C-alpha cells in the first residue's frame, strides 16, 4: 500500500518513494539535554515515533537516528545568547557532562513511559566533534565560509537557494532577521550562521580546531550526525515547526554546499502543543513534564492517546491548571483521554465484547481501511475514529504496533472464570472467617483477593468470583 506524506520542502502531499526499495533513513532532531523535556517537545517526539512505527507497519526497514544535543545550542537559535548547557551547569552547579548525561537518561525514561520506541541510533554531539570539524573544513575548502573573531561562519550569500525550506529568499530573511543585542559586528549577513565558535577558551566545553579552541555550532551537529549514519542524501528528516526558518534551513544549506547533492528528500514538521494559547517553553518556567503527569495521577499513555487524536500538522491546545502545590495539576482534555482509554481497555478486555468482523475478508477490508488513513500523511485521528467505528477488538489489537497503547498488558482478555487455586484458597479461608463472624479477617482477605485481581461477591448461593 502507498504511503503519502506532506513534504514541507514542496508544500505538497507526495507519494513516499524511498531511495532504496523497502528501506527508510529517518533523522529527527533530538533534545537539548539541559533540562527535562516538556510535553510539547514530547508531542513532536511522539509524532516521530508514530511515523517510524507506521513506516514499519507498511513494511519498511527503518533506521531512525535522533541526536542528543549536549553542546552548542544557544539560547537564541540565531547563535546569540549563551550555550544552554552552560546555563544549566551554572544553575545546578554541576559539570556540563553530568548535566547532559542526567537529562539524557531522564529523556530516555520519558520516551519509555510514553511508549516511544528508542531510536536505533542516539548519537551525542560531544562525541562527534571530529565529524563536525571535517565537515566545516570541507565547507571552508569549497569557499562557503569566512572567519571573524567570534568564529567560523557559513556565508549564506554563496548559496542561491538559501531559505528554500521556508520559501523565503535572502532579502526576505534580511527583513525578518532578529537583530540580537550581542550579535557579532563582523557578521556579514544576518542569516549567516556559526559553524564553529572560536576563541572560547573559557567556555565550559571546548575542543581544539583549525579555527581555535571553541565548540561547534548547533546546526552543523545535525548535518554531521545525520550524514554519518544515513549517508549524504537520505529519505526523511523531521522536527518541530519552529525548526523550519533557522535550524533545518541551515542544515540544508551547509549539507548541500558540502556534498553538492540534495540533503533530504522529505521534510516533515510537527505543529506545536500550545498551553493557554501560548507555546509551551522550557524557558517560560513551570513546564509540564511526564513526571508532572504521573505525579498528577495520569497514566502517561493517556497523553499518548490524546496526541493520537490530533493530526500532527494541527496545533494542539492544552489547558493545564496547576494545583496550589505548583507540582501537580489537571487538564480536562487529558481527563477525557484517560477516561476514553480506560473504557477502551475495558471493552477490549471484556469477554462479552462481540467481534463484529466475523470473516477474514471483512477483517482484511477493515484493516486496509485503517491503513489508508495511516498512509494519508499519518492521519491518526481518522484511523482511531475508524477503529472506534468498526468496534472490533481484533482490529484494535492489530494496530497496537502503531498505536503503542500496550493492549497486551492493559487489556488482556478477561475470559477466565475459574480463579487460580491460591485465590480460591483465600476465598475458602474468608468463608471460614465469615462463619465465625470475624469481619476484620474477612475484609482483610477480600482486600488480598482484590489485590490479586479478583472480586468476591457474597450471594445466597455462596461466594462468587469475578475478575476485576
Ligand atoms: P529542543 O530540546 O528545544 O531542541 O526541542 C526538541 C523538539 O521539540 C524540537 O523538535 C522542537 O521543534 C520541538 N518543540 C519545542 N517546543 C514544542 C512545542 N511546544 N510543541 C511541540 N514541539 C515542540
Ligand atoms: Zn537538528
List keywords for this structure.
single chain, 468 residues, alpha/beta, four-stranded parallel sheet, four-stranded antiparallel sheet, 17 helices, 17 strands, 16% strand, binds adenosine monophosphate, binds zinc ion
Question: Overview of this structure, please?
Answer:
By secondary structure, the protein is an alpha/beta fold. Helices cover 42% and strands 16% of the residues. The protein has 17 helices and 17 strands. Strand 14 and strand 15 form a beta hairpin. The two termini are 41 Å apart. The protein binds adenosine monophosphate and zinc ion. Adenosine monophosphate binds next to helix 1 and strand 9.
Q: Which whole number gives the mean pLDDT? A: 91
The shape, in one word, is elongated
Give the helix level as a range of percent: 40-55%
For the biggest β-sheet, the strand order reads 4-3-9-10
Distance between the termini: 41 Å
Number of helices: 17
| Rg of Cα set | 27 Å
Q: How much of the polypeptide forms β-strand, as a percent range?
A: 15-25%
Largest sheet geometry: 4 strands, parallel
Counted beta strands:
17
Q: Ions, cofactors, ligands: which are bound?
A: adenosine monophosphate, zinc ion
Structural class: alpha/beta
